[in-house]
Amino acid sequence: MMIANRLKDKWVLITGATSGIGKACAEQFAAAGANLILTGRREDRLKKLQITLSQTNGIEVEIYSFDIRDCEACKSALTSISHPIDILINNAGLAAGTDPVDQADPDDWDTMIDTNVKGLLTVTRYVSEQMRERNSGHIINIGSTAGHEAYAGGVVYCATKFAVNAITQATKKDLHGTNIRVSAVSPGLVETEFSEVRFDGDKDKAAAVYKGMKPLVADDVAEIVLFVAGRPDHVNILDTIVVPVHQSSATMVHKSNKE
Ligand code: NDP
Ligand code: 8X3
Which domains are assigned to the chain? Predict the structure, then answer.
C-alpha cells in the first residue's frame, strides 16, 4: 500500500511547524492527504501555512500559536483540540550557544531544557493520554546525532537530545502492550534556521557551519519522518540516524572548497 493511502485523512500534530524540519513535514504530510494541527510561536507564519497547505492539498489545517515552554499554554491548546491526534511529531527545539561548560550562560541551558525536554514532555503527556484511550496513535520524536554522541560546545544541547533518546525509549515501554507506536528520527547536520538561532541571529556564523560541504535539507528529514509514519500499523521503527554523506561523526565533517 502507498504511504499516502495510509496517511490520508489522519490528523497529524507537528510542533515547531513555522520553519525547517517541522515546516517540511507539514508540507509533505499535507501532500500525502493528512490533516494538520500546526504549532509554533510565530503566528504569522502559521497563518500563511494554513492558507497555502489547505488550498493546495484540500486538507484541513488548524493552527495553535503558543510557547512550548509554557506548560499551561500547552495544556490549554492541546486539551482544546477536538480531533483525535493520530500522529504527533515532536519537532520544536533549538540549540543556544556553543560555549564550553565553564563559560556558557545558564539562561541558555534553561531555554534548551525547557524547550527540548520539558516542552516535548508536556505535549507528549496530553497527546499520549488520548492516544491510550483510543489505543492507537504514533509519536515521532525528532532527536539528533547529538543524542547519540556528545561533542564539545554542546554540553546542554547534547544532554537534551540524549534526553529525547531516553524519553523515546521509556515512552515506548510505558505504552507497551498498546497499539501506539513510538519512534525517533535523529538527523546530523541539516541546514535550517537552527544555526542562526544557535548563534543568536549571526547569519555569517551560521553559514560557516555548512560551508564546504553539502548538508541535509529539511525535506530530506521530512521524507524519513513520512516513511516512518507510513509503515503498516504493526511496524514500529524505533530510531533512524541520518547524516550527510560527508559527516561521519559530530566533529568529522569533510569539507572541500567546491561546495
Ligand atoms: P528551525 O530553527 O528551523 O525550527 C525550529 C522550530 O521549533 C521552529 O518552528 C520554532 O518555531 C520551534 N520552536 C523553537 N522554540 C520554540 C518554543 N519555545 N515554542 C514553540 N516552538 C518553538 O530548526 P530545525 O528545523 O533544524 O529544528 C527542528 C528540530 O530538529 C529541533 O528539535 C532540532 O533540535 C532538531 N534537529 C536539527 C538539526 C539541524 O542540524 N538543523 C539536526 C538534528 C536535529 P517558533 O520560533 O515560531 O516558535
Ligand atoms: C543538530 C545537529 O550536529 O548541530 O542536532 O548537533 S548538531
Answer: 2-241 (3.40.50.720)
